[in-house]
Amino acid sequence: MDSILRIDGPVYHFLSRVVELILLNILFILCSLPLVTIGASVTAMFSIALKMVRGEEGGIISGFWQAFKKNFKQSTLVWGCLSLSGMVLVLNYFFLQFYMGDFSTIILMSLIMFSVIFCMYLVLIFPYIARYKCTIKQACVNVFKMGIANLGSILLMVVLMIGPVVLMFFSPIWLVIKIYMDIFIGFALIAYISSFMIRSMFEKYEK
Fold first, then answer.
1. Is residue 140 within 8 Å of residue 118, measured between CB atoms?
2. CA distances from residue 117 to 155, 191, 198 in whole angstroms, order as listed
3. Domain ranges of the chain
4. Which residues have a Cβ under 8 Å from the Cβ of 104 and sit 6 or more positions away?
5. I need a surface site. Which of 130, 134, 145, 207 has the fewest CB within 10 A?
6. What average pLDDT does range 104-122 have in this prediction?
C-alpha cells in the first residue's frame, strides 16, 4: 500500500495528471472566449498534451502561453479557414434536401468526401502546427498525406471529439454531463487521449 501511495507511485502520478489537465482545460477555455482565438488555444492545448504523452512537459501555464503566442498568427488563419469551410459544408447539406435533380447522389457523395477531408484537417492541423515549425502550406500538404495514410485513426479521433457533442442532442442527461465535463476537464482530456494516437502518427515520419 505504501508503494502505491508514495510520491512517485501510480496514485500520485494519476492525481497529478488530473490536476494538470484541469489547469490546461481552464487555460484553453479562458483563451478561447474571444472565439477568434480558438485556433491558437487549440494549438497551445495540443502543444502541452503532446508533451505530456511524450514525457516532455514542463510548466503548464508558461508552456501554454508560449505556444499560444508562438503559433497565434498561423493558428488563427487556419481557424478562420476551417470555420468558413465548415459553414459552407453545413449550408450545402441544408440546401441539398431541397434539390431533387438527377445529380443529388453525386452531390451527396462529394459532400461526404469533402466532410471527411474537413474532419481530417480539423483533428490534425492544430497538433501538427503545435509540433512542427512550418508554413501553413506545408502543414496543409503534410496533414493531407498523413491523414490519408492514417484514415482509421482519424475517424476514431473524430468519433472521440464529435461523438459526445452529437449525443448531447439526444439525451438531456448527457447534455448536463457534457457541460460539466467541458467546464472542468473535458477539452483537455480529449486532447490528451487523442495525443497518444497523434504521437504514433507523427513518430512514423520522425524516424
1. no
2. 11, 20, 17
3. 2-206
4. 96
5. 207
6. 89
This prediction has a pTM of: 0.90
Confidence tier at 8 by pLDDT (50, 70, 90): low
Cα–Cα distance between 71 and 133 in angstroms, integer? 9
Cα 167 from Cα 19, distance rounded (Å): 27
Please, are residues 28 and 43 in contact by the beta-carbon 8 Å criterion? no
Q: Residue 142: in which H helix or E strand, if any?
A: helix 136-149
3-state secondary structure of 99: coil
Do 25 and 41 meet the contact criterion of CB atoms below 8 Å apart? Answer: no
With beta carbons less than 8 A apart as the criterion, state whether 42 and 82 touch.
no
Looking at residue 9, what DSSP letter applies?
S
Whether 102 shows a pLDDT value over 90: the answer reads: no
Alpha carbon distance 110, 145 (integer Å): 19
Q: Pick from 171, 63, 165, 80: which is nearest to 121 by CA?
A: 80
8-17, 32-41, 51-60, 110-119: range with lowest mean pLDDT? 8-17
Asked if 14 and 175 count as a contact pair (C-beta separation under 8 A), the reply is no
Of 86, 182, 195, the residue nearest 130 (C-alpha): 195
